Amino acid sequence: MDNLSATGSLSLLLFTLRSGKQMAINLLKVSEIIPTPGLIRLPESHPHVRGVATLRGQPLSVIDLSMAIGMPPLQDAQGGCLIVTEFSRSKQGLHVQSVVRIVHIPSSKILPPPYGTRANSFITGAAEIDGQLVQILDVEKVLLNIVPAPVEADMSELDDQDAQLLGKTRALIVDDSQVALHMSLAALSKMGITCHAVRSAREGLATLDRLKDTAEAINVVVSDIEMPEMDGYSFTQLLRSHPDHASIYVLLHTSLDSTISADKARAVGANAILTKFSPPEITKCMLQAARTIHLGEGAEV
After folding, report:
1. pLDDT tens-digit series, residues 180-233
2. Fold of 155-295
3. What Cα–Cα distance (Å) separates residue 15 from each residue in 36, 98, 122, 134?
4. Domain 2-144 - what CATH class?
5. Which of 37, 97, 106, 152 lies at a CB distance of 3.0 to 4.6 Å from 53, suitable for a disulfide?
């Protein structure tokens, strides 16, 4: 575990909402930051959606982040700026009061959510910055409450051979977002895949070590990319250099556009990469993984 505990820093984007209190978002989950554009209000839209803007010719839903996490709305609907992120294959703008700065902190300094935090909280962790405890936003959980849930894959179309291959597949899901973890777990379990789920690369490696040489040994890892402590790229590199885990099939699962990350995923040795979250697409990827593992069929990122 020493090679994992030596990992470096996490980059956080600090921002403020109406109260002025600073919060943070994992910088890897941010595609860009833009001034608040003019908005078109759509009838019957979610109450937390202020409207729709156009970003390079594509629609961009703009969410009042204060309202989305249970706080009063921003006072100035046209002020502030948008933190653009991606979920369920579409981009959303998180409307915030201001973006403060980017900080880099040691991964070891990331704390779990404060004691007493509600189970339905939108906080995935915390960090002490300049003497203050700054909460880190669980972006996927915020967006899942607003963006329609992905359509489930139809398992009835699987033939007997594919069903058998999936039944022999044992997956480890690694994702720092509890919501994303549960979504992946539900999708893979529905396919008949035996699953283990953890929230960090550290826990992932410990699980792989614990299960190796047993009947439950993992043969495919489905890992988020945008994680604290160690991101999915570094985790893949670690697995490829590990004598016991080098041959494990690795599917990288990203909140951002996978086409942008494909070259880097290929370079670190990932077998495939997929943009979150599409049950039909992850079913297709897991079928390819199962065929590669059990039949020796090739797969490329």
Report:
1. 898 899 999 999 999 999 998 999 999 999 999 999 999 999 999 888 778 899
2. Rossmann fold (3.40.50)
3. 14, 6, 15, 10
4. mainly beta
5. 37
